[in-house]
Design goal:
5-stranded antiparallel beta sheet, 120 residues, 0% helix, mainly beta
């Protein structure tokens, strides 16, 4: 396996890949397993046949869904079926579609201390 460090996480994308599992180790460790990932470096895209995304030691976590009927975000837990967007500055935000609801879901990890990916 190869480790993709925190400073390269924003170069990862998951087009056409599915979330296989979300494992909450405890209240400060999460592992998201996917069936693939793409990494863009030096104007070259490298594809991987699997990926584990590790998020650790965050200050707070907010999981919400966008309810189209209400036209607003609601606090509701749902597992992700895919990852369509990631944003990383001081917070790490993952967006995709919910497995149970089918709604647009956002995981907002507030100030995580460590994020990395493990790829084959």
């Amino acid at each position: 396996m190869n480790i993709i460090p925190m400073n390269d996480i924003s170069k990862l994308s998951f087009p056409d890949y599915a979330v296989l599992d979300i494992n909450w180790i405890d209240t400060s460790h999460c592992i998201i397993s996917l069936n693939g990932a793409s990494l863009e470096q030096n104007n070259h895209v490298k594809h991987f046949d699997g990926c584990k995304l590790y998020i650790e030691f965050w200050d707070d976590l907010k999981i919400s869904c966008y309810n189209h009927e209400l036209a607003k975000w609601i606090v509701q837990k749902d597992d992700l079926i895919d990852i369509c967007e990631i944003t990383f500055d001081s917070d790490f935000i993952i967006r995709g579609f919910g497995m149970k609801t089918g709604l647009w879901v956002e995981y907002n990890f507030k100030s995580p201390k460590n994020i990395y990916a493990d790829v084959p």
